[in-house]
């Protein structure tokens, strides 16, 4: 029997195939989101899942998938399950939000605060066995402090030079952003921002982390950390408990430096930074669900 765990995000999808004893395959595929009412999202989901199925090269017994932008209506949820089931026929399916999956992987049946920052940002906890979320509003309404927001702030730093018709210093954050977007004019910036998927903007966060000793990068990362800490503060206000352990995870948590340092100071004694493989955890959840019948 084979158990597949999928951690599907707006920037990339991680997957792990487990045979009950060990991992037999793993990989990275394209982004997936749950907005299947949009033709491009539906097509992307189908093509990415088909890629994963072809790379598994085995009949999958059970799947646990965490999906960003998971369907809110019963109709969309049923359609999502139908798409997955059509690509993995015969497999038992468990469909969760990406945040719910991350919480279960890190806390199991215990209670804590999950601070998750990938392309977007959200904090959550369990109250009376129900997952309570703060933030996670999407890049148009929120997600401050996460990958897309950091990447956008890097572009805004470049825009100061664009407005002045000046070139940034060679080797600077702004210079490397200009090189990545292949230009430093307003026309170049517009083409990059409005001609690409938001995952391309989120990817610029890595440039910011790569310049974390530069003043403009420090400003961006410390501001990101303050936004993320505020999510935890809002969870604390809801629960009335400031002693719950906090786990910080997601792609943004992997950038050591000003961001993580600020969070460690602000949430001293409570926070743990986790690089646990959520897709691997999902595969083990699929195995557990299968064993329980």
Automatic annotation (TrEMBL):
The family database entries (Gene3D superfamilies) matched by this protein are listed as:
3.30.420.40
Domain ATPase BadF/BadG/BcrA/BcrD type span(s) in chain numbering? 4-286
A Pfam family this protein belongs to?
Answer: BcrAD_BadFG
Alphabetized CDD domains for the sequence: ASKHA_NBD_eukNAGK-like (cd24007)
This chain belongs to the protein called Unannotated protein
Task: Identify the species of origin.
Answer: freshwater metagenome
Q: What is the lineage of its organism?
A: unclassified sequences, metagenomes, ecological metagenomes
